Amino acid sequence: MNKKGFIFDLDGVIVDTAKYHFLAWKKLAKSIDVDFTHEQNEQLKGVSRVKSLEKILEWGNKTISEEQFNNLMASKNDDYLSFIAKMDDNEILPDVPKILDYLIAQEQPVSLGSASKNARQILEKVNLMNKFNAIVDGNDVSKAKPDPEVFLIAAKHLNIKPEDCIVFEDSVAGVQAANTANMISIGIGEKDVLHEADYIFSDFTEIENSFIQELINR
Ligand code: BG6
Ligand code: MG
Predict the structure, then answer these.
(1) What pTM, to 2 d.p., does this model score?
(2) What is the distance between the terminal CA atoms of the chain, rounded to a whole angstrom?
(3) Which residues contact 37 (CB under 8 A, 6 or more apart)?
(4) Which numbered atom of ligand 1 lies nearest the CA of 138?
(5) Does the C-beta of 115 come closer than 6 Å to ligand 1?
(6) Distance in angstroms (rounded) separating the CA atoms of residues 60 and 75
(7) I want to staple 183 with a disulfide (CB 3.0 to 4.6 A). Which of 91, 114, 147, 165 is the partner?
(8) Residue to mutate, 40, 47, 72, 84, ligand 1, most ligand atoms under 8 Å from C-beta
(9) 192 in helix, strand or coil?
(10) What are phi and psi of 52, to 5 degrees?
(11) Distances (CA, A) of 203 to 13, 43, 53, 158, 199
């Protein structure tokens, strides 16, 4: 049987947590007197926690001490976790379970490939932990997307060659990481934003099992 490695980003692909990141970053920005817009939040998709705060400080023209930087990161995450605590499986994006179940039925190896250090907690809250053969997240990498490290580690865990892996991503940085890893990139979101992806869908309701089967058969 043909085996491909299927790697899923988490935030924006499996669950819509961007809104919680936005609320938490917005509160932080306000506390240091910096403006923070939805458009800027878009630019933080797929971007690590450290890099996100660096960008917000840059946009607001702020310089702070290392201690204050670490305190701000910690309080942002506390706020974010208070939203996560209330999550349940209603927050899984449409048709994600359908695709995961199809892959499992076809005995295809499946991994998470996320920048988030809260990934395991979120998968537990939405009850999807048991759908994955491997979980690679922000705790396992030293280089953030667009570096391909997270996806290459996932491929290794699945024991599948990178060129036989398929990545689902909603961020530009993530699509670039998948392309650099020599994997097939599937953008989930807007065509004009994710144009570097090999395939683009608005969401999983647009993806037929027959398309997944074609990827497996390649
Ligand atoms: C990415 C999100 O998946 O994870 C980013 O798109 C987030 O918005 C990053 O900053 C890191 O997440 P966390 O949960 O470790 O702060
Ligand atoms: Mg994402």
Answers:
(1) 0.96
(2) 12
(3) none
(4) 15
(5) yes
(6) 19
(7) 165
(8) 47
(9) coil
(10) -65, -45
(11) 8, 19, 28, 25, 12
172 lines ligand 1 (CB under 6 A): no
- Provide, rounded to the nearest whole percent, the portion of the chain with pLDDT above 90: 97
Average pLDDT of the chain to the nearest whole number: 97
CA dist 90 and 36 (Å) reads 28
Q: Confidence class of residue 42 from pLDDT cuts 50, 70 and 90?
A: confident
- 83-96 residue pLDDT tens: 999 999 999 999 99
Site of tokens 């999983």 = 204
In the chain, what are the domains?
5-15+89-217 (3.40.50.1000), 18-84 (1.10.150.240)
Given a contact cutoff of 8 angstroms between Cβ atoms, the answer to whether 9 and 168 are in contact is yes
Computed on alpha carbons and rounded to an integer, the radius of gyration of the chain in Å comes to 17
Q: How far is the CA of 12 from the centre of ligand 2 (A)?
A: 5
pLDDT in tens, 112-132: 999 999 999 999 999 999 999
Distance in angstroms (rounded) separating the CA atoms of residues 194 and 168: 11
Active site residue 9: yes
Beta carbon of 138 within 6 Å of any ligand 1 atom: yes
